[in-house]
Every structure is written in structure tokens, then in C-alpha cells.
Design a protein that fits this description.
The complex is a heterodimer. Chain A is an alpha+beta fold. A 3-stranded mixed beta sheet of chain A has the order 1-2-3, with helices on one face. The longest helix of chain A is centred in the first third of the chain and has 19 residues. By secondary structure, chain B is an all-alpha fold. In chain B, α1 packs antiparallel against α2, α1 packs antiparallel against α7 and α6 packs antiparallel against α7. Chain B starts with a helix and ends with a helix. The chains are: A alpha+beta, B mainly alpha. The interface between A and B is medium-sized, with 24 and 25 residues.
Chain lengths: 93, 170
């Protein structure tokens, strides 16, 4: 594994631990952090929050999710993690 | 109405119109693109106004074409960070406010999504994703309006075109 790949794995793990330490959104059941390059080729974190089954994705929820994702992003950006955190959600299968 | 407002309305019309059937996949993609461009044009319009408040609208429209999506991404990434690097830290007198950081973060999110929506045939879109990004754009534009007259907002906007000058002036 190259030094860069190792650094990516470390940042992924750091982000995962950080997200777990933050106040959770009740509708979020789980999350996944993935390493990938963004559209311009910059190494990034892609964080997908899986919602609990039956979650109503209405405007009220979307407003709460936006505040949550910004707080998660801010927490990550407040660390020395170099990769930018792109956040998204998906509904339970 | 400004182009930014028109684009946001257009995105919302696609998603929230009750008199039509569920939008097709392509319309979710158009909505995501419009949401991004609503924020992009809001920022570049305000930037042009700051740089040249007395010119005609035709000239201002030409100035708006100076702004490069990739460069704006890089600038937003700098402002989104806590403890920004120099010369930004000195220019701001510390960190950017949480609101400006939220605008910068939202810009990056929307830009990446727009790229997926417009170019990536494998990019997964649905109504919820498009609505999420519409809310993201709407919230970011509202946040920007609250701070757009501030000193940090001036520095943010000037950075889009003058970053190399800031760096030379360290």
C-alpha cells in the first residue's frame, strides 16, 4: 500500500470515529465512509448515511438532515483530515 | 428576478409541482444542476456587483464570466476549513464564520452533485436526492444573503479572482 493510500485509510478511520462521537440524527441507522476522487480529481471522503426503514423524507426531515450534514462536515473540517467530506443519504432497501 | 432566483424556482418547479406526474430521471438531473447554478450565479452576481458596482449590466455579465468553477471549488475548500492557511488566516483575522463555512461547504456539495448529474451516466438520482440538494442550495443562498455585506464575504468573493495576488502578498 502506498503512503498516500495508507493516509487515505487513516483519514477514513478517523472520520468514522469522529462521526460516531457526534450527536446522531435519529433517522440515521448507519453510515458508510468511502474514499474516492471528486469531479476535479481531489482525494475525498464520500459519506452516505443510511436511513431507518420507514423514514419520511419530507421537507422537515431534509432541513434537519442538511443541518446534520453541515455539522458533520464542520467537525471533519475542524480536524487535520485533508479530504473534503461529501455527504449524502440513502433510504433503507 | 435574478438568474439565481429563476434557477432555484426552476429546480423547485421540477420537484414540487403537484399538477404533473412524477418527474423523469432526466428532470431530477436538471433540478440538481439548476440548484447548483442557483448558488453559483448568486455568488458570481454578488461578486461582480462588488468588483464593479457602477458598470452597466452588460459589462457586469461579462465580469461574471471570469469565474471558474474549479477555482471557486478550491477557494471554497480553503474557507470551509477550520484554521485556514495563510494568507487567508491573516486576511480574515482568524477563521471564517460558521455561516460562511456552511456556504462554502454547500457549494462544494452541490458542485460535485451537479457534475454527477450532468456528466455521469452512472450517477444515481431520485426525487429525494434532488429535493435534498434543492434544500441545500436554498439554505446556502439564505445564509449567504445574511452575511454577504460582511468583510469576510468581501474577502471570500475577492478570493475567487484575486487568490494569486493574496498569495504573492504574503
Amino acid at each position: 500500500m502506498s503512503a498516500e493510500e495508507q493516509a487515505g485509510v487513516q483519514e477514513k478511520s478517523q472520520a468514522e470515529q469522529l462521526i460516531l462521537s457526534l450527536p446522531a440524527l435519529p433517522e440515521v441507522e448507519d453510515f458508510q465512509v468511502r474514499l474516492s476522487d471528486d469531479w476535479i480529481g481531489d482525494p475525498s471522503l464520500y459519506i452516505t448515511f443510511r436511513l431507518r426503514s420507514g423514514t419520511l423524507v419530507d421537507d422537515a426531515f431534509l432541513g434537519r438532515f442538511n443541518r446534520y450534514r453541515l455539522s458533520v462536515s464542520k467537525a471533519i473540517l475542524d480536524t487535520d483530515i485533508s479530504r473534503f467530506p461529501y455527504t449524502d443519504f440513502e433510504k433503507a432497501a | 428576478m435574478s438568474l439565481s432566483e429563476d434557477l432555484l424556482d426552476h429546480s423547485g418547479e421540477i420537484l414540487f409541482s403537484t399538477h404533473r406526474e412524477l418527474p423523469a430521471n432526466v428532470e431530477f438531473r436538471r433540478s440538481i444542476s439548476a440548484s447548483y447554478y442557483a448558488l453559483f450565479h448568486r455568488l458570481t452576481a454578488d461578486a461582480s456587483e462588488l468588483l464593479a458596482p457602477r458598470v452597466s449590466s452588460d459589462v457586469r455579465h461579462r465580469i461574471q464570466r471570469w469565474f471558474d468553477h474549479g477555482e471557486m471549488k478550491r477557494i471554497c475548500a480553503r474557507f470551509a476549513k477550520h484554521a485556514p492557511e495563510q494568507p487567508l488566516r491573516n486576511l480574515l483575522g482568524g477563521n471564517a464564520s460558521d455561516e460562511l463555512r456552511a456556504v462554502a461547504t454547500s457549494f462544494l456539495l452541490l458542485q460535485d452533485a451537479r457534475h454527477g448529474a450532468d456528466y455521469d451516466l452512472g450517477y444515481k438520482v431520485d426525487l429525494d436526492k434532488a429535493r435534498d440538494l434543492f434544500i441545500t442550495a436554498t439554505t446556502a443562498i439564505q445564509a449567504w444573503k445574511r452575511i454577504s455585506s460582511s468583510a469576510e464575504a468581501n474577502i471570500f468573493i475577492l478570493s475567487f479572482v484575486l487568490w494569486k495576488n493574496w498569495e504573492r502578498d504574503r
